[in-house]
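Example (one chain per record):
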Amino acid sequence: MVRLKTTAEIEKMKKAGRIVAHVLQAIEKSVRPGVSTWELDAIAGNLIREEGAVPSFLNYGSPPFPASICASINDEVVHGIPNKNRLLREGDIVSIDVGAVLNGFHADAARTFAVGEISEEAKKLIRVTEECFWKGLEQAKPGKRIGDVSSAIQQHAEKHGYGVVKQLVGHGIGEHLHEDPDVPNFGRSGHGLRIFPGLVIAVEPMINQGTCEVRLMEDQWTISTADGLNSAHYENTFAVTENGNIITTILDE
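Predicted structure:
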């Protein structure tokens, strides 16, 4: 069941979102060759707790996720588990997914960062994946449908020859990390749930350089591309209102 959020609830979600945005900012400054994904996780966990919040991902699901962030390198699409022995290398790309819950409400966002100098191909993948989010956001207006958001994302990714992951989707968010509705990154315009003011969703294009197919790794969390080519991830939580969308996980300029 989809539960629309009140103005007061959206204000609470903005506070959680600001924490997530600060964490991503801090991690971006720390991403460099030789840093472990475990170190990035420690930065995130400490910052979230310093702000009086709790990491949304820690102990989530089954088996329980063992970290505060997901750190997915190169062909890893999402849900990479931070590890002391997993060191970033020059030329890698790393997707960092962060969630925080404050005063009973969650925020969720992801970015893909370059590690040192990366290839032009990798830069384009990161850029187009972010563009996919903004294309989807443009369609998230009262009276539109979820399929309008999904279709805009899919069309932009496929225009560049990329694969759109179909086994994983964006989602509603609020008092729970994952709520209704599902927000796929593929679909048909004019179809799906109608969008109303008060809808809060996390839209998160997961775009592959090659095939759209993915595989689950032995750790039962990490999902990688089936062909071993790179994948990028970009996500924000936002609220739909009569006066435009409020992105909760981006810092004010």
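Caption: The two ends are 35 Å apart (CA to CA).
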